[in-house]
Amino acid sequence: MLSRFRPDSFTIALIGTVVLAALLPGRGAFAVYFHDFSNVAIALLFFLHGARLSREAVFAGATHWRLHLLVLTCTFALFPLLGVAIVQVAPDWLLPEQLALGVLYLACLPSTVQSSIAFTSIAGGNVPAAICSASASNLIGVFLTPLLVALLLRTQGDGAMSFDAVEAIMLQLLVPFLAGQVLRRWIGGWVARHKLLVGLVDRGSILSVVYIAFSEAVVNGLWQQMPLNGLAGMIAIACVLLVLVLGLTTLLSRWFGFNKADEIAIVFCGSKKSLASGVPIANVLFPAAQVGVIVLPIMLFHQIQLMACSALARRYARRSECGTRSLD
């Protein structure tokens, strides 16, 4: 029972990185060089994703447009609406202003790819549809997340995203991804055979950004500005947000008449938010001193969603097994 809620190795590494940044934050020239290293690692990450993701996977299941439309609506419309509602309702003592911006940013992010597909598979759902929806969400998120962030921050009176930020998104994230797609014909097989390398770059780039972001935040007085009640409130809000989205995606999938396999894909693809995309995009969109606080909600939500969806996937699987036995 306890193993379901045990943090995975990557979450432990994230926690260790935050502790390291809190105790030994990067300063001066080291911080500058490490920031440049993080930018290169992020570009390499999206290049490898472009080389790894086949065109067949991108377009597979595209004819199931009703499912994909519902997943994208939940990811880029339902989530932002819930995020705005929570920020408006939550009192300042429960959700300080800086974490409120992080909640709005979290609500604008695309869905995860790996865990959405993995949980859909464990639960016995429509895996091809999950691959297509999760992949499309990440591709669209490169464009749509910055636009949603600009819109929501403008409504909160915090200004809009600059043209320089859009240009940075294109150069650091989209261009490497497209380059990987172009070169996939020649290097796709090599990338597929070296999944460990891709995984190291994937996780290493996120950890490097988290370290430099929290280092900058600590140097600028993060812990003086962030009370413990804010962290406790953020955990509670992340749990409430996940419960709401899981419940609404389940209800909507049944209301629109999807079968059980499609429902599973919708629930797991439509309720997730991607830490892998969220940290690099935040690094481009926000000032370095803000990134540490901005990504804190997605880091907490990431772990909560993994634990909750792991239990939910096993529950779906057990129901499927019981149904199969009853037919036998």
Automatic annotation (TrEMBL):
Gene Ontology annotations for the cellular component aspect, listed alphabetically: plasma membrane
Pfam families: SBF_like
Organism, scientific name: Magnetospirillum fulvum (Rhodospirillum fulvum)
PANTHER family: SODIUM_BILE ACID COTRANSPORTER 7, SOLUTE CARRIER FAMILY 10 MEMBER 7
Gene3D superfamilies referenced in this protein's UniProt entry, alphabetically: 1.20.1530.20
Keywords, comma-separated and alphabetical: Membrane, Transmembrane, Transmembrane helix
TM annotation in the entry: 7-24, 30-48, 69-90, 102-122, 129-153, 234-252
InterPro entries listed in its UniProt record: Na+/solute_symporter_sf, Put_Na-Bile_cotransptr
Superkingdom per UniProt: Bacteria
Keyword DNA repair on entry: no
Protein name stated in the entry: Solute carrier family 10 (Sodium/bile acid cotransporter), member 7
Keyword presence, RNA-binding: no
